[in-house]
Design a protein that fits this description.
about 45% helix, alpha/beta, 5 strands, about 10% strand, Rossmann fold, Helicase, Ruva Protein, domain 3, elongated, 2 domains
């Protein structure tokens, strides 16, 4: 149902498997996660902001009963679950306390025969970890990569972002946007948020005219 434009409704991301669009840009990573049997029971999922790391990790967590934790908020004690997702591990680099907690969680889960899915935006060698033992374990972890989006995936991401905001748009607007926008997941998020704000300000639907204004404004701000 289209959103009522008089109200700024909250965004409710859809995170089920059916909401995750598989394309050549992410098919290998999806296959690696689904296959299981990860070397040493752990896998590092790498991809840029908005690439679907959290979505894919949540799908796996739902299907396996895994506990989902943010790397910056890891508990001091051991995790009880045998399957654990730790998100945004690269963000704790340089924090000795957080790194130590991840090191102990890593060892505890795997020593019990559990599985560990870790997400980050780049390979471990770029993180700048200060704990050598953790760095060596992360660098030895098998990796699955979410690649930059192709047209099909970028189109699907736009459709999902609009749906998360309960915005109905003309189907022809999606390919029109794909050929003109910056080709990244982060750009898609910004674009949909700005189109939403523009439509709310005008009290009407998202139109090509609004989209053209938003894209032109972004182009003028680009150095």
């Amino acid at each position: 149902m289209p959103r009522q434009l008089a109200f700024d409704l909250p965004v409710r991301p859809a995170l089920g498997r059916g909401d995750f669009f598989v394309s050549p840009a992410n098919a290998l990573a999806v296959a690696q996660i689904d296959a299981g049997g990860w070397p040493a029971g752990k896998l590092l999922l790498i991809g840029p902001e908005g690439a679907g790391k959290s979505h894919l990790a949540q799908v796996w967590a739902t299907e396996t009963g895994a506990e989902v934790l943010a790397a910056a908020d890891l508990p001091e004690g051991p995790a009880e679950a045998l399957a654990v997702v730790v998100e945004d591990v690269d963000r704790i680099a340089g924090d000795p306390v957080a790194e130590t907690r991840l090191f102990h969680l890593h060892n505890h889960v795997l020593a019990r025969g559990g599985r560990l899915l870790i997400t980050a935006s780049a390979p471990p060698r770029t993180w700048g970890l200060v704990l050598p033992d953790l760095a060596s374990r992360m660098e030895a972890t098998a990796q699955a990569a979410l690649l930059p989006p192709d047209d099909a995936l970028l189109s699907a991401v736009l459709v999902k972002l609009f749906a998360d905001r309960q915005i109905a748009v003309a189907p022809s607007l999606i390919p029109w946007l794909v050929t003109r926008m910056d080709r990244s997941f982060a750009a898609a998020r910004r674009l949909v948020a700005e189109l939403d704000a523009g439509a709310l300000a005008r009290g009407g639907p998202v139109t090509r005219e609004i989209a053209r204004e938003v894209l032109d404004s972004a182009a003028r701000q680009t150095p």
